[in-house]
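Lay summary. Proteins are chains of building blocks that fold into shapes, and those shapes determine what they do. In this project we predict the shape from the chain. Here is one chain we studied, written as its sequence of building blocks.
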Amino acid sequence: MIFNSESDSYRLGSLIKALLIGIRFDLRLAVLVNIPLMIFCAMPIVNVVRSIWVRRISNLYIYLFTGLLLLFYSVDMGHYSYLGQRVDVSVLRFLDNPQISAQMVWESYPVIIILILLLFIFIGFKLIYDMVPAILLAKPQVKTAKQKFLGFTIGGLIVVFSTWGTLKQYPLRWSDAFFSNNSFISALGLNPILFYNDTRRFARDDFSIEKAKEYFSDMTEYLDIDKRDSKTLNYGRYTETSRHFNRPPNIVIIFLESVGANRLSILGNPLNATPNLDQIIEEGIFFKRFYVPMVGTARSVFTIVTGIPDVARIKTSSRNPRINKQYSIINDFTGHEKHYIMGGSAGWANIRGFLQLNIPDLSITELDDLKSPRLDVWGVSDHDLFKEAHQIFENSDKGKPFFAIIQTATNHRPYSIPENITGFEVEHISKEKVNHAGFKSVGQYNAMRLLDHAIGEYFSYAKRSEYFSNTVFFLFGDHGTSDPWAKHMPLSNYELLLRSYHVPLIVYGPTFTKGGIVRDDIAMLPDLIPTAAGFAGISYHNQTLGRDLMSIVENQEGFALTVGKKHARPTIGVIGSQYYLTMYHDGEDIRLYNLNVPGAPEDIQQEYPELTAKYSRLVQGLYETSKYMLYHNSQLLDHMSSK
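And here is the predicted shape, written in a compact code that computers can read:
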């Protein structure tokens, strides 16, 4: 691969980095393959030294795996030379037509020569393997207890490092190989067997073209798409900005970790845990009925970046190497510096690789780049995170606007409270009292107060900065939590589990927004980036489920998709201005609820058959389209074709 003449240009530093990553993957594979041999050697009495049968079994194991490895690597080389990509689980598609595939291989490659070459390589390895026992047993040495201890300790550390692959918090992942946007460099850093195993978990493409076509008309009408081609399933449209600035505003998006709407005092929470957020709401725009499609921080990261609800049923989409390349509206912020700032490691959930691959000019600041001390497993405290983010903004190019995402994490178990936070004291109140307000514990309540305090402190010094007056801030909850019923919220919010999806969205930029605006229309997370682009005066291509919330005409109904895994079977649902419909993902057990009726929610589908049919089609359309988009949101699309 290094001498692949068809690869794009690349720097020597990138080449060396990819090779080093590849070597670490190879070390991991070597350790995994040799675990049975380690066991054969470590067994007392009956081991490879004392038992000829154990030695024969270990040799048979070595010969078998060597043959399989050679065969797999040869397939990988052929696959890359033919398709320009490493082997993943999609290679199994060639087995659908084995005769045609075999003929293609026979006509495309010198099969006989390759097999002979592999045979000679195998024989060479066999000769080396056969020599090893003779060398080791020729002069057996008796080791002292100290020597044995040191040997096991050093060997154990080597095994652990080789398996983990890094000295960082999270292990080496396939996404670490995608540090470059150059496809050759990314491919070079992968190990074919480990990469194949990673993709094997995502073997089944979880989408249906037929179903996407069935709901295409409904979705394009909902998204107000003029050009509708059900054959190509093109959801693309181009938004020309109506705003023009001498210098576009900065955009700062702040993740409010685990903040559901039921936390806000402005919505009736009696414990006043969010005075600073409430003050910001009074000076900005508050979307009081904003929802995330599926619960999980990694899913919210993916949904923001792509504009597609992360409805993947197996793990999260950022972990799936088969759909790691995605188009993002963020790339249309061409004149902005781009930052992603978090207090922990971006290796979590493959976020670093996902971001680097899809937003090439994005600067990622994570734990290792921060000067602040680590607080807990999630990294530095939110107070320190905001201080460091503020410094980055202060030091940014004054001639360019910036686009930034700040991901907080302190409002998360273990709910760590840093020492010496000026103006903050832990409150000790009864568990019963916090339960009535929707908090599971006193620690969770104080963690929410701590996050709110960090936000208030940040804006206190941000307002004195040069960048503040030219910035629009978007603060949103990345998901709610499964907590006791907050008595100030409708019972349906608890019994229908909506508290996990219902989160706040606050738009705050005194120069650009009027204060005290409360929006009651339904909106969801994919809408955030198109809305930010509208505020920034960015013309952009959009092929997602997101809409600019500020451009929605009056009385245009919005809907929000929900996908749940907390029931016996996975559920999907759609929230409208008054009604909420749920069903199992296969369309069974449909239920319709009126959210405006107080008390325990009751299924009313029998009373409203037409409404049930409308919502049933809508939820399946949103769900099936989201699944299709996950696999068809390539950033290689010709954006101009939809203008």
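What the prediction tells us: The longest helix spans residues 52-83.
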